[in-house]
Amino acid sequence: MQADIDECIKLSKSYEDFLRLISEKGYIVSGEKIGDPHAKYIKFLAPGQERPVRGSFRNFGAGYTKEEIKDRIENPGKWQNIAQPESEQKEQEAPKAKPRIKVPKKDILTRTGASRTLIDTTGEKFQNSPGLQHWASVKNLKTAAASYAAADNLSELQKQIEDKTAKAKSGRTELVELEHKMKKVAELLRYAKQYHDNKPFQEKYIKSKDPDRYLRMHETELILYDGAERMLRQMGIDPKSVNPSEIRADYEAMQAQKTALEKTYKSAEKEAKSLQQKHRNIEQYIGHESHEIQKPPTRTHI
């Protein structure tokens, strides 16, 4: 939830923009009106969640009340270092009699797209440190829970991955086809403009009383005209019927379509990768839990 809130804050240009984006992620938001005397805190209810969560320091740390969210959007420079909530601080602290736990850099929780990967706890440092192992277990549990929230079961999650992958592939194919069309239209526009710009010189050449002299003076323009006319006819187009302004308008419309397709397929690719990571998280977590259950109990000497 915190990651989703942070992402929406980063993408928002206004507080109202934030409310729209977080709602689009499936959250139900209440108490969002700033200055409402009956609702001190903004509350977020995730899909499938029974009780809403307050946007308070206790739950998330600094920067998550409605007033602070608005300020983070309007003044991002002030919020580069956000304080953690007490629960997060306690999780990262070692037992009172021991020094603070140092997490090996290679085992630190990392991000892949919008989803986290599980921490590998098989290393010697984890095995020799119950505190560090507990910290990693809590983090892995949170990561797995967030991954489970993406779908009701692995089959549904796999279907979502296939749908997003297919959408990305389809978008990419459409984009390649559109780029081929744009290349042809760009070539047509080039010769249409060249024909249109140099046509007056051809007309004056025909009407000239001294064609040889006129040719010497405007040889370049006349050559360009002849070349454009020849290329347009080879493309199966009557040069007299071409309108550079209309062709340019068509090309610009294709350019806008290309931008939209690029955004669609890149977004689908990113979502597919995020879902794939969540799928791996669940499989790894299930495998890890099964391994833990099958471990023989350690004999304790009293």
Question: What do you see in this structure?
Answer:
By secondary structure, the protein is mainly α. The chain has three domains: 1-90, no CATH class; 93-149, no CATH class; 155-280. The protein is 63% helix and 4% strand. It is built from eleven helices and five strands, in the order ααβββαααββαααααα. It has helices at residues 2-11, 15-24, 57-60, 66-74, 86-92, 124-127, 130-148, 154-207, 211-217, 219-234, 244-294; strands spanning 28-30, 43-45, 53-54, 111-112, 115-116. The strands form two sheets. Strands 1-2-3 form a three-stranded antiparallel β-sheet, with helices on one face. A two-stranded antiparallel sheet has the order 4-5. Strand 2 and strand 3 (53-54) form a beta hairpin. Helix 8 (154-207) crosses helix 10. The radius of gyration is 32 Å and the shape is elongated. It starts with a helix and ends in an 8-residue tail after the last helix. Residues 83-114 and 290-296 have low confidence and may be disordered.
What is the topology?
Blueprint: H1 2-11, H2 15-24, E1 28-30, E2 43-45, E3 53-54, H3 57-60, H4 66-74, H5 86-92, E4 111-112, E5 115-116, H6 124-127, H7 130-148, H8 154-207, H9 211-217, H10 219-234, H11 244-294
Antiparallel strand pairs: 1-2, 2-3, 4-5
Helix pairs in contact: 1-2, 7-11, 8-10, 8-11
- According to DSSP, the number of beta strands is 5
Shape: elongated
Strand order of the largest sheet: 1-2-3
What about the largest sheet? 3 strands, antiparallel
Low-pLDDT runs: 83-114, 290-296
Percentage of residues in strands: under 5%
Determine the mean pLDDT.
79
| Helix vs. strand class | mainly alpha
Annotation field: number of helices? 11
**Gyration radius from CA atoms, angstroms:** 32 Å
* Strand/helix succession: HHEEEHHHEEHHHHHH
